[in-house]
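Researcher: We're teaching a course module on how sequence relates to structure. For the next exercise, students receive a sequence and then see the predicted structure as tokens, so they can try to spot secondary structure elements on their own. Here is the exercise chain.
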Amino acid sequence: MKPTLPLHARVALAAGVVLVLTLAGARSLWAQDYAPSLTFANPTLLGPSFAGLVEGRVGADFSHRIRRATDQDNFTTSVLTVDYPLDLKRFVGGAGLILASDNAGGLRTNQAHLAVSYEVPKPARIRYHHLRVGFQAGIFQRTLQSANLVFADQFNALINNFDPSRPSADVLANQGLSTPLAFDAAFSLLLYRTQKIKGNPELNYYIGGSYHHFNRPSIGFNPSDRDVFLSPRTTIYGGLKYRTRSIVDVNLNAIYTEQNASQLLTVGVFARVVFYERNVLFSNESASLIAGVNLRQQLNNVRRVVEVSPGVLQEENIRRSGLESMVPYIGLEYNKTFSFAVAYDQVLASQTSLTSSFGGLMFMASYVFGSEKYKKPALPFPLF
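Model: And here is the predicted structure for the students to work with:
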């Protein structure tokens, strides 16, 4: 009789096939998410397959981003993810918690998700190659803060403009507005290779994809707005980590995201200068300096409405040229336990409402509780 995989392994592989087919046929709908400057600052946010991938007992990642939307407004985003590895008798994988809050000029989006990942069993001859499937579920809500709203009866003819200091009789002027709590879900697939021998030159890979909001959660403020949904988001990612037999290792990565009418490609390079413990060169790490840069490009065209003749409007596409932004970052890592980095978002595109090149700042921190830096195989993903 031919050997067969256990039932739970076949279910996991079937889920992976469903993911690939879904990614191939995914199409976008209405509203969309924000795009973080550095996605791996909170890897579980990228896909639930990353849940529990920690070189320790518990890992916590926090990021806070201040980004420029217009010359008058700065938007902020805060994300906390906590990951817990699971190594049970019949279940190897991990669990994760995702808490995120995004404030876009008075429109606040709050999310809370629980994620779980499962590692497909494999024979010993390919024990350094890992296949994980992940699923997450949680709640999603948006709140419109009345202090940031301007109403029609606040128009001041003396200044020919709206005056927010004038009182308004609008019902929304004295209360906020929130969407009902909506159920949100996602699933993902991840294939990667861990380090085989510490200190040896190795080239390790990872590749995967995720599909968020596949249930299209409702985001309408009015209960009658049943056709207002959050668009499904398709993400495909991959990269290589080259461990040299020196004090430097390098990580290359690429992420493609499609949601609604937006297609974003991010390509990054990440490097570490490693300091090793005495007499254990290229093996036991004590600290490292980290640096990298991400290059971002919107692949879709810009749409705008122009007046082709008096009273006649026409929509036209403007082809994007050059990079949209560049995100350099620097940081440090201590004892494979604590990491901290700062990133600067430099706007390069000319199709923007900003008059300066400041795109935002991002602060990132990571802490691993119960670090097992010399026991677990090193993961191939970038730190941020």
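Model: If you want an answer key for the exercise: The domain at 7-369 is CATH 2.40.160.40 (Porin). Residues 1-29 have pLDDT under 50 and may be disordered.
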